[in-house]
Amino acid sequence: MQRRAILSGMAAAIMAPKAVWADTQFKVLVIGMPSKYHYEYVPVARESLERMARLHAFEVVWSHNAYVLDQDLKPFAAIMLLNTPTEDLSADHRAKFEAYVRAGGHVMVVHRAAIALPADSWPWYEKLVGRTVGVHPMLQTGVVTVVDKSFPATFGLPQRWIWSDEFYTTTNPHNVKITPVLNVDETSYDPTKIWPGQVVKGMGKDHPIAWYHSYEGARVFVTTLGHNVEMYRDPQYLSHLLGGLYWTATGRGRG
Question: What pTM did the predictor assign?
């Protein structure tokens, strides 16, 4: 017993200095609320993001519901809305999210979270996203092209990237200026392929699928990629997320 106590004490002493150096660079709140079409991703994305946080010395706080917005949000450098259906946010939680942004917070929006339903129900949020998402074609394989090589969310990607996703079509009713990071080449897939009874048109040569801008002083990064659960195991996609999150939380990394 005495020997065991000594060994335990030695282990604690060895570990103590490491804890001192384990300070995190920043803290991120990830809200990953499941929905009808986006729920399988939750445990996979959480594991991948928490591993990413350990590797890169930042802290992730994960929540699967909006009640986390009731707490003090000041410690968070950024909030990531990860496939969260924003129509499920109550008026009170929407107000608290807006207050976070206006108090100096920053936001990263991923895939389904870019959609505000019903349309014009939350114009403030549509302006924050920078684009309004309409109906979109089925998941297909296409060619994603890098528009801004200087932005961290592109650093791990080739200039032309074969990727399979729901390539959202968007409009700009609020005349928001964004800086595109990734486009999708509509000649590489069928932008009109849609479910029976629906109609969708392509956007042409200018079809951004990831972008950034500033909104009410907040850094906002949006990627509309991320539909399939397997994507949250893909190293290139995770590199894309990391680059966007790094810039959102710190404002650094642009070449």
Answer: 0.90
pLDDT tens for 91-136 read 999 999 999 999 999 999 999 999 998 888 999 999 999 999 988 8
pLDDT(48) > 50: yes
Phi, psi (degrees; rounded to nearest 5) at 65: -145, 165
Cα–Cα distance measured from residue 237 to residue 243, given in angstroms and rounded to the nearest whole number: 10
Report how far residue 90's alpha carbon sits from residue 104's, in angstroms, rounded to the nearest whole number: 22
The span from the CA of 59 to the CA of 49, in Å, is: 10
Q: Which two tokens stand for residue 196?
A: 């029976």
* Whole-number pLDDT of residue 118: 86
Burial of 139: CB neighbours in 10 Å, binned 0-12, 13-18, 19+: middle
Structure tokens at 212: 């950034």
- Contact indicator for 166, 227 with CB cutoff of 8 Å: yes
For strands 218-223 and 107-110, give the pairing.
parallel
Helix (H, G, I), strand (E, B) or coil at 102: helix
User: H/E element holding 47?
Assistant: helix 41-56
DSSP state of 188: G
CA distances from 247 to 203, 211, 220, 251 (A): 27, 12, 9, 5
As given in the structure block, the two tokens for residue 122 are: 């939350």
- For residue 145, give both structure tokens: 């092209």
What the block records as the tokens of 179 is 């800086």
The pLDDT of residue 4 is above 70: no
Residue with tokens 């107000």: 95
Beta bridge partners of 170: 133
Quote the longest CA-to-CA distance of the chain: 76
Q: How far is C-alpha 29 from the chain's CA centre?
A: 11
Nearest-CA neighbor of 200 among 142, 140, 141, 135? 135
